[in-house]
């Protein structure tokens, strides 16, 4: 085995990051590139596929250079990525035929309604573990085939390839030698049978998607191909792991046993509970999804996906101009004692788990003549924690397991007001781990395992607790605040539909 470093590529919704980890899983160099978000029409969110690739390549080169290691010292690459975001490109030239449609994009809501009308909801839930929603890749592929000139004809002739961001990056890294994905990313397409671990013929037929476009599905730790020498100092590096970013964070917290849960606070909030080798079907609006696949074993998770979390803090900055930087949200929130009765439901792109309402829209309640920017900031931060409680409540009902603590990571967890409110509103300990970049760490950990650099017993020591937030809020106040929130959510539901 040559090299004792692992390079993790973390292609997120707002930035591409890369981290070099040493043989004790300590980060030794980080590279990061922000890239542009395109909002061409209301409800549409797009990324430029070439920008995704270039930003990721530059971030990787920067991480290697900052860490001071040579490319030949890198034993393996682990890839983790924003999930569901979908691209189509030409098999011959590798040219994308249009922008990537991002997971937040709502344009395919009518296609989802059509699937529901055709009575496919139950079949989709049973086969894929998912609810019918524009969030997932299936209707995004179908939309591109319908709306991009010549796309359907070319797809049927075998000229086009489809994939999520992991497949796109691997295609570029290997110079078009590998068109593959892993079981976690496949499980987010709404085309994948999570029991048989294969693309589902009936769903492909119903959505009119040629199977020849889709990548081969591998376990999350596997041989995904080798990088072209031109990308990293003339060396070919094996790609040894691929995980969707939320699954990678679960792994990075070493939540490897049934009953362990984590929440990642990035653009959205994603709460995952490991349910072991057993699939738990949700009766309360959660998704059943693949946590990872390694050595012929699949671990499943229950997931609550909240679409708008850190994105609401971005709105305070870019939409309302109340702050210049997300970090300032904490200072502004600290200028008042509480939210002053203000409740904000940031349903900017509808509501995800546990409501799955594509037509809900954001709203602000409880304004008075005394409402100040601080109250708005505080209510915005609280909305992240309240949405999390909606999900953990559903999780406890579905799994029958009361949560004992919540492990947290992601860009927003450095906000102590948010973390304290999270502990308060859950009545649970919130544990912020030492390593901030848990997503990248998770991908690196699996790549290291797959490559034989580490043993499973070592994983837990890689990311110890850094800070504990204990619940301090009086139980009566906690429940009153939560009832207020539920009331506000009810009033946002179906808003867009009611307008039509
Ligand atoms: N101090 C902070 N308080 C609250 N939110 C924050 C803070 N710092 C960053 N954020 C939010 O975290 C998000 C970025 O987190 P990150 O994990 O990088 O997201 P992603 O992987 O979705 O790109 C942004 O939406 C930003 O608004
Ligand atoms: O890129 P993030 O961290 O916002 O994660 C996005 C999720 O994978 C979407 O399902």
From TrEMBL:
Nucleotide-binding found in the keyword field: yes
SUPFAM superfamilies associated with the record: Actin-like ATPase domain
Domain Carbohydrate kinase FGGY C-terminal: 262-449
Binding sites annotated in the UniProt record for glycerol: 83-84, 135, 245-246
This enzyme's EC code(s): 2.7.1.30
Residues at which ADP binds: 13, 17, 267, 310, 411, 415
Listed name of the protein: Glycerol kinase
Catalyses which reaction(s): glycerol + ATP = sn-glycerol 3-phosphate + ADP + H(+)
Binding-site residues, ATP: 13-15, 267, 310, 411
UniProt-listed InterPro entries: ATPase_NBD (IPR043129), Carb_kinase_FGGY (IPR000577), Carb_kinase_FGGY_CS (IPR018483), FGGY_C (IPR018485), FGGY_N (IPR018484), Glycerol_kin (IPR005999)
Self-association state and partner proteins as the record states: Homotetramer and homodimer (in equilibrium).
Activity-regulation annotation: Activated by phosphorylation and inhibited by fructose 1,6-bisphosphate (FBP).
Molecular-function GO terms, alphabetical: kinase activity
Keywords (A to Z) from UniProt: ATP-binding, Glycerol metabolism, Kinase, Nucleotide-binding, Transferase
Gene encoding the protein: glpK2
Pfam families (alphabetical): FGGY_C (PF02782), FGGY_N (PF00370)
Pathway: Polyol metabolism; glycerol degradation via glycerol kinase pathway; sn-glycerol 3-phosphate from glycerol: step 1/1
Similarity field: Belongs to the FGGY kinase family.
Gene3D superfamilies: 3.30.420.40
Binding sites annotated in the UniProt record for sn-glycerol 3-phosphate: 13, 83-84, 135, 245
Domain Carbohydrate kinase FGGY N-terminal: 5-252
Annotated organism of origin: Saccharibacillus kuerlensis
Function noted in UniProt: Key enzyme in the regulation of glycerol uptake and metabolism. Catalyzes the phosphorylation of glycerol to yield sn-glycerol 3-phosphate.
């Amino acid at each position: 085995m040559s090299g004792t470093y692992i390079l993790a590529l973390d292609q997120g919704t707002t930035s591409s990051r890369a981290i070099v980890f040493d043989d004790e899983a300590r980060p030794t160099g980080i590279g990061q590139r922000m890239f542009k978000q395109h909002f061409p029409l209301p409800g549409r969110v797009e990324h430029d596929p070439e920008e995704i690739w270039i930003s990721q390549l530059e971030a990787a080169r920067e991480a290697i250079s900052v860490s001071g290691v040579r490319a030949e010292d890198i034993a393996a690459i682990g890839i983790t990525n924003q999930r569901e975001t979908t691209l189509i490109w030409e098999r011959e030239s590798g040219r994308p035929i249009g922008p990537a449609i991002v997971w937040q994009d709502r344009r395919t809501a009518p296609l989802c309604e059509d699937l529901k009308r055709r009575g496919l909801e139950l079949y989709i839930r049973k086969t894929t573990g998912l609810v019918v929603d524009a969030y997932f890749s299936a209707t995004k592929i179908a939309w591109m085939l319908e709306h991009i000139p010549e796309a359907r004809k070319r797809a049927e002739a075998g000229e086009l390839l489809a994939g999520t961001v992991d497949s796109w990056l691997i295609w570029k890294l290997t110079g078009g030698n590998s068109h593959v994905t892993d079981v976690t990313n496949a499980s987010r397409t709404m085309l994948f049978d999570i029991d048989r671990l294969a693309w589902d013929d009936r769903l492909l037929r119903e959505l009119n998607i040629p199977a020849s476009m889709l990548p081969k599905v591998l376990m999350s730790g596997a041989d995904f191909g080798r990088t072209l020498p031109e990308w990293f100092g003339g060396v070919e590096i094996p790609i040894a792991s691929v995980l969707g970013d939320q699954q990678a964070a679960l792994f990075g917290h070493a939540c490897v046993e049934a009953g362990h849960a984590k929440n990642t606070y990035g653009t959205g909030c994603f709460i995952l509970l490991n349910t072991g080798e057993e699939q738990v079907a949700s009766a309360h609006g959660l998704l059943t999804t693949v946590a990872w696949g390694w050595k012929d074993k699949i671990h499943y998770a229950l997931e609550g996906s909240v679409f708008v979390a850190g994105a609401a803090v971005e709105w305070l900055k870019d939409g309302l101009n109340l702050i210049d930087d997300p970090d300032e949200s904490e200072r502004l929130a600290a200028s008042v004692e509480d939210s002053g009765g203000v409740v904000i439901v940031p349903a900017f792109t509808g509501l995800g788990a546990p409501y799955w309402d594509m037509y809900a829209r954001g709203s602000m309640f409880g304004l008075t003549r005394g409402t100040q920017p601080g109250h708005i900031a505080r209510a915005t931060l609280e909305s992240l924690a309240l949405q999390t409680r909606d999900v953990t409540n559903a999780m406890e009902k579905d799994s029958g397991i009361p949560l004992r603590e919540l492990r947290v990571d992601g860009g927003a967890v450095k906000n102590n007001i948010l973390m304290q409110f999270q502990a308060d509103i859950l009545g649970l300990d919130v544990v912020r781990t030492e390593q901030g970049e848990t997503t990248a760490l998770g991908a690196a950990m699996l790549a290291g395992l797959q490559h034989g650099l580490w043993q499973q017993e070592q994983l837990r020591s890689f990311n110890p607790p850094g800070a504990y937030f204990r619940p301090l809020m009086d139980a009566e106040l906690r429940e009153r605040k939560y009832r207020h929130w539920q009331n506000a959510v009810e009033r946002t539901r179906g808003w867009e539909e009611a307008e039509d």
